[in-house]
Amino acid sequence: MQVAVAGGTGLVGRRVVAELRAAGHSPVVLARSHGVDLTTGAGLAEKLSGSEAVIDVANVVTTRKKVAVDFFSRSTGHLIAAARSSGIERVVTLSIVGSGEVDFGYYFGKRVQEELVRDGGVPWTVLRATQFFEFPEPLLGARSPVVMMPRMLTQPVAAQDVAEMLVEHVVRGPSGMAPEIAGPDRLDMVDMARRIVRSRGRRRLVVPVTLPGEVGRAMATGGLLPRGDHVRGRRTFDAHLASYGAA
Question: Which among 73, 107, 116, 212 has the fewest CB atoms less than 10 Å away?
Fold first, then answer.
């Protein structure tokens, strides 16, 4: 099966591409570096030609509602319209656990994305995942010896586990809102960051910060945890740290 992967060069996307190839499928990457601009639709129809399905893991890094809503409105809108015109049989979209309940800026964009997928006229699956093991690392990459890390209670998951589940869903067929996927353990983001710092041998002082208002309270007290029955990833955060040379 030929499967187009929107955002196929990112953290999850490149794993999805590799997983598709390993399973004997033919991935087609939809990304600017491969001649496609999802935010304008340029090059999209040509790249979708011959594909039977789409896995959408395209992303924008922002905490701002306006930026997130604009990106997902345009990228998902163009993708679904092109998929419908091209006769795509199914779309599998990656979203975030808690995005429907926590009023964080970025999550408003994911809500718009999910709505566009649901109403887009193409058979669909939405898979919500918790934060990835790598989530704290961009903040830790700053040159400052002091890093402000938000208090977030999460059940982080391996990007590889999510990639494998996305491929399973694209093979299985449309299922609407799929069971959420999370890692095996509940962890605090501040503790995760400190453990990453130790495992990398870096010098960083990680300072906990509670985000203001209801959003901060929700993030710190379980608003980002999966609800009800969900899929548990196989890989642990300890194994993730060990893969970089130290646990």
Answer: 212
